[in-house]
Amino acid sequence: MAESKTITLNMGPHHPATHGVLRIVLELEGETIVNATPRIGYLHRGIEKLAESRNYQQIIPLTDRLDYASASANNMGYCVTVENLMGIEVPKRAQYLRVIMAELARIMGHHLWIGTHALDIGAMSVVFYAFRDREMIMNINEEISGYRLTPTFFRIGGVAHDATPKFIEMVRDFVKWFPKGLDGYHKLLTENKIWTTRTMDIGTISAEDAVNYGLTGPSLRGSGVAYDLRKAFPYSSYDDFDFQIPVGDKGDVYDRYLVRMEEFSQSLKIIDQAIENLPEGPVNVDNPWITNPDLDEVQKDISALIRRFMIHIKGPVAPEEEVYTAVEGAKGELGFYLVGDGSEHPYRLKIRSPCFYLASALPRLMVGHMVADAIAIIGSIDVVLGEIDR
Amino acid sequence: MVRLTIDGSEVEVPEGTTILQAAEKAGIRIPTLCYHKRLPPIESCNMCIVEIEGEEEPVNSCAAPVSEGLVVTTNSKALHEERTANLKKILKHHPLDCPVCDKAGECELQDIVYEFGIEDVPYEPRKVKRDDAYSTTLIRYWADRCILCGRCVAACSDLKQIGALEIQGEDEHARIVVDPDKCKSCGECLMVCPTGALTENLSKYKGRPWLVKRVWTTCSYCGCGCQFQLNVLDNRVIGITTDVDVGVNRGSVCDKGRFGYEYIGDESRLKKPLIKENGALREASWEEALDTVAEKFKAIRDEHGPDAIAGLTSAKCTNEENFLFQKFIRAVIGTNNVDHCARL
Amino acid sequence: MSYKNVIQTIHKKFPDAVVKETVNKGQREITLARSQFYETMRVLQDNPDLPYDLLIDILGIDYTPRAPRFDLLYILLSTKDFSRLIVRIQAEEGEEIPSVSSIWHSADWGEREVYDLMGIPFSDHPDLKRILTWKNFEGHPLRKDFPLEGKDFDKPFDPETIEDYT
After folding, report:
1. How would you label B63-95 residue by residue, b for 16+ Cβ within 10 Å and e otherwise?
2. pTM for the structure as a whole
3. Touching check for A295 and chain B: CB below 8 Å?
4. How many domains does chain C have?
5. Hey, which chains touch C, using 3+ CB pairs under 8 Å?
6. Is C24 a member of any domain?
C-alpha cells in the first residue's frame, strides 16, 4: 500500500462558502494546502450559443443573468458594445440614468460581497446590516422596472422609459442615508483585531503576478495597479464625473477589502453627481429602426404600430464588422466581443468574464495557506458563478 | 442585346426586359410592393419609380422596357421622398390590426414600412365603407386591410385563367368584387396577397411565422407532385405555404393541395391494423394482419380461381408503388383485374 | 511611437511573422502567421518599449465552411499606457496551436475553454482538459454544426452516463 503524505479534501459544489457552485479539490499536508484545483461548469447555461439565435434586443435579459449580484452593470457592457458596433449615439439623459443604475448595481454587488465574506470568516452581524441596505437598492430597482434583482432596464439606444419622480426621490434618500451605513461597516470590521489578523498577509499577490494571471478590477487594484476602465477607456459619460480610484499596495486580503470599501463611497459620489445634474432630454436615440414607439402613439398611428411590431420581432441589423468593448463590472473588466454578419442576430458573442480569470488564480493564491485561510481568499476575490460559467 | 447604365454600372440584357429585371441582373434592389414575379406588371403602388435621364417624370421600372443607352438612377433624395409619400397614402387608411392579423410577421407591407422607417401616419377611417363578403367560406376577405394592389385580380385572370375577381369603382369607391359562380377556391389569390386582406379560413388554430415549423413535402393527392411547406404547430398541421421558385408548380396549388390537409391529423384515422373476429374488430400487429391477408388471398385464389380477386389503386401512390401493385395482381395473384382511379 | 517600435522589432527578428496590420474601428489589430507564433508572442510580452503584459481574453470564431475554419483571437493590454492590441491567427480543423500559457498564466484557463467549446487543440499546455462541460461530453458546443438544443435532446437523459474529472 503506497503511503501518501497528502489528504485530498473536496470543497464540493454544494458549499455555503464558495459563493455559488464552485468546486475546489484541495490537497492538504496536515492543515496546509499544497495544491488546489478549482473545477467549474456546474452553472453552464450556454449563453453564448443562445445569443447566436436571438435578436440583439432579446439578448439583454440573458446578460442580466451573468453576474446576477450586480445585474445592471452587465447590461451596460452589452448595450455599449452593440452601440459601438452599429454606430449609435445615446442621448445624455439616458447615459446619466445608465450610470446611476450601474453604480447602484456595483454597490449592490459589494454589499453581497461584504456580507458573505464577513460571514464566512465568522463576523455574523455584518450580513444583516449589509442586506438591510441592499434592500433599499432592490426597492429602487423595483420602482424603475418591476424587478428586484435583474432590472433589464437598458435598451439598445437608451433606456426603457424615463425616470419617475419617485425614483429620483428614492435615489436621493439612499444617497443621504448610505454614508451612515458605510460608517457602520467600518466600525465593525476595519480596525477589528480579529479581522485584521485573519486578513492581513493572506493571499498576497504582487502586481506583476496579478497582471500575468489576468486579474482585473478590485483584486488587481489591491495589488497596486491603477487599472479602472471608467478612467482608462471612458464610456457613457463617465468623464463628466469627478471620482477617484482606490489602489492598495500589498495585495493581500485586507488590501482588497479596503479597496472595495473605498469603492462604496466613490460610487456613491458618482450617483450623487449624476442625480443632481440629470440633464433634460429624450431617453432614447431618435432612430425609427431602433426606438420603440410609446403605447399611446401606437394606438393611433399605423406606422408606429408596424414599427413596434417589427422592432420586437426583428430589430436593428448590425453591419459585417467586429468590435471589442469592455466596461468596469463590479468584479473587474467585463468585455464583449461581438461579430456582426449583416443580419438581426450576432454571428458570435464572446463574453470576457472577470470572475473566470479570478477563479483561475485561486491555486496561486491558496497554496501555502491553511484551510481556514482558503475561505478568506475565496471571499476576497469575490467570484459569482453565473459569470464564470455563463 | 441592349446595353444600359443603372446607377453608374453598365449591364447588358436582352430586348424586352423591364428596367426592374435589368436592375436585378446588375445586383441592384429597387423596392416594390404590387410587383410579383409570376404576374404581369400591375403598376398600382408606384414604389418602383426610377429617374431616367432626359425624362421629367419618374417612371415605374416594373413596366418600363429597356432601350439602348438609357441612364437610370434608382435612388435619390427626391425619389425617396416620393416613395415615402406613396406609401403614406396607402397606410393612411390601413386599420390598426397587426396584433390580430394572421399575416403579421410575414406581411410585405410591414416589411417595406420598416425598411423605409416611416413615421407619423395617424389613422383615418375610410369615407366609403367596403363590404367583407367573399365567395367561398375557405378564404376570408378583410376589406379594410386591402390596399387594392390588384395582385389577386391578376393572379386569378392571368395565372389561373379563371377571372373571378374584379376591381370595380374609382378612387374612394374602388373595391374588389367576386363572381361566386366562377371561383374555384384554388387559393391563388391567397398566395399572392401582400397583406392580411385574404386569409385562410379553414384551420381552427393559427400560428405566428416564428413559432411554426415549416416542412417541405410533396402533395399526396395526385401525380403532379406539387411542392409546398406544411406549417406545423404543436404537432398539428395548420396550413401550407408555397414558394414561387420551388417545384414544378412554382408556388401554385389546386384547392385539394391548399385546403386538404385536415385528414393528416384526423382523429378517426387508424393507428393500428384491425382484424374482424366474431363480428367485432380487434387490434393486431402488422405481422399478424399481413399474414392473415396473405392466407385469405391464397385460400380464395385456390378455391375460386385467380379472377375472383380484383385490385384498384390510386393516384395518391407513387409510380413505383403502382408498378409493384399491378405486378402483384398480375404475377402473384394471376389475374388481369387491375384498375386505377384515373380511369374512372 | 512605441507601438511602431514593437512592430519594427518583430519585423527585424521574424520577417514573415506579421501577415497583416490593420486598425479596425479605432482598435489596432495584427494577423500573425502560423510559423514563429510563439516567439512573436514572447516578444510582444517582454519587449521593453511597450510590453503587452495583460492577456485579457482568448476566443475562437468558427467560419464554416471557409478553410481555414477557425479564427483565433488574443486580446492584449499594456498596463504602461493602457492600450489594447488584438492578435489574430487562423487555424485549420485539428491543427495544434502552441500554447502561450508559459508567457501569460491567464492563458491556461482561456485555452482550455477554447479547446472545450470550439475544439482547437493546443500543444505544450500543462493540463488541457475540458472545463465547462464534462469529461465524456461528445462534440464541441460552440461550433456551427452543433445544434442549439444539444444532441439527442428529445431522448430521456440519464445522469449516470456522465463521467467527470475527479
Report:
1. ebebeeebebbbeeeebeebbbeebbebbebbb
2. 0.87
3. no
4. 1
5. A
6. yes
